Amino acid sequence: AANKAGKEEFLYVGVSKCKTKDYDGAIEALEKAKSQGVSDKLLFYGLGNSLYQKGDYENAAANLSQAVSKGVDDQETLANLGKSQYRLENYEAAAITLKQAEAAGAKDGETYYFLGHAQYESNDFEAAISSLNSALSTDANNGDAYYQRGNAKFRLKNYESAISDYQSAISNGARSPIIYNNLGKAQQLTEQYEAA
Fold this sequence. Notes:
By secondary structure, this protein is mainly α. Helix 3 packs across helix 5 and helix 8 packs antiparallel against helix 9. It is elongated, with a radius of gyration of 21 Å.
């Protein structure tokens, strides 16, 4: 009975530490619980979300996937899983998971920003524009969201609107040299269409 109490204690201490943003403490306690055979959904929830916050996206994705497969479906877990999948370049899975996070209530700019990126990387440009519009509705100064939305519009041959987004990206602090390259290409293509 003492061993069961020890396992459960590590589990609950770990989840509590995760919720109070003591991610190192959470990981330590939850790894101890895991080493003692705990496989509860709360273990995977706490461990996955803590690992995500520490930037260990590969292990975060593995643990968050386990949590979701065991019935955890809160917006934080789904959003962190989707963002981990994105960072691991699993764009199609990220887009699906981030849509689930949105359905669970994740309506923040960061979730929409990652969703838009994942949709763009999955060649779903219309959906990317819609998600990036939502990201910009929560943060109208997100230069990177303007840049990515401009790229999606460019891919749909909506060059004039892409130019506007690239200019907004620059005026809102996005500094990638690729923005200027894409802006120039869009301007050149617009001039070619106007001349034709």
